[in-house]
Amino acid sequence: MATPLIYNRESAAENMIWVHTVPQGELPNAAAGKVQVQDRIANDAIVSNFYTEKRQQGDRFPGLYYGREHHLYIEEENGEALGWGKEMENRDNGVWVLVELTDVGQEAIRNKRFKYTSFCADPKDVQSLGGDRVRVMKLESVGFTNLPNGKDLLVPIANRAAGAGLGAPAAKPSVARGSHSAD
Questions:
Q1: What pLDDT, on a 0 to 100 scale, did the predictor assign at position 74?
Q2: SS3 label, residue 85
Q3: Pairing outcome for strands 141-145 and 176-177
Q4: Residue 161: what are its φ and ψ, rounded to 5°?
Q5: Is residue 80 within 8 Å of 105, Cβ to Cβ?
Q6: How far is the C-alpha of 157 from the C-alpha of 166, rounded, in Å?
Q7: φ and ψ at residue 92, rounded to 5 degrees
Q8: Mean pLDDT, the chain, as a whole number?
């Protein structure tokens, strides 16, 4: 049985939101010349690799980085964190991440500056399926964006005032920790 999250202060849940980060489906990536096949196998691997890293790092685990677009990789851009992924689940429509938003991230999401995500993977964490088809098996970082690859497969980030998006779990501390698969 999964253990529910416990927050030590009332306001802690206010900066936590569930974000649909990796859709299930095929994502043509023109820039890379690949088709990313994000099926159950790939998304289960992403969740498993996340929890392996979290377990290995223990208290030193910062979480999965969320920032603006992919500015983390562009020296002259602002790579500050907008959030840190703390928990992860593979659901029927893909990978959802419980993101702890930073002060800057709270403002950006509250003011609807970003509606989607775009994930990034290291080439060593991609499984070739032959031809131009690959599976992403581990995430390196995530950018909040308005022009995602696979936009038609992603659930928009819900504004708290508007409630959860289509199929999005409610953004509250009743989520089970360590639940690694969709029911």
A1: 54
A2: strand
A3: unpaired
A4: -65, -30
A5: no
A6: 10
A7: -60, -30
A8: 78
Q: Which residues pair with 4 in a beta bridge?
A: 176
d(CA 96, CA 16): 13
Alpha carbons 182 and 123: distance in angstroms, whole number: 27
Q: What is the dihedral of CA 130, 135, 140, 144, to 10 degrees?
A: 120
Statement: the pTM of the whole predicted model exceeds 0.85: no
Going through 39-124 in order, the beta strands assigned E by DSSP cover 64-68, 83-91, 94-101, 116-120
Q: How far is CA 1 from the centre of its chain?
A: 24
Query: In whole angstroms, what is the distance from residue 98 CA to residue 85 CA?
Result: 6
HEC-encoded secondary structure of 60-80: HCCCEEEEECCHHHCCCCCCC
Please write the tens of the pLDDT for every residue from 90-122. 999 999 999 999 999 999 988 888 888 889 888
For 56-77, write each residue's pLDDT tens digit.
Answer: 999 999 999 999 876 455 577 6
Instruction: Report the distance separating Cα 142 and Cα 119, nearest Å.
Output: 4
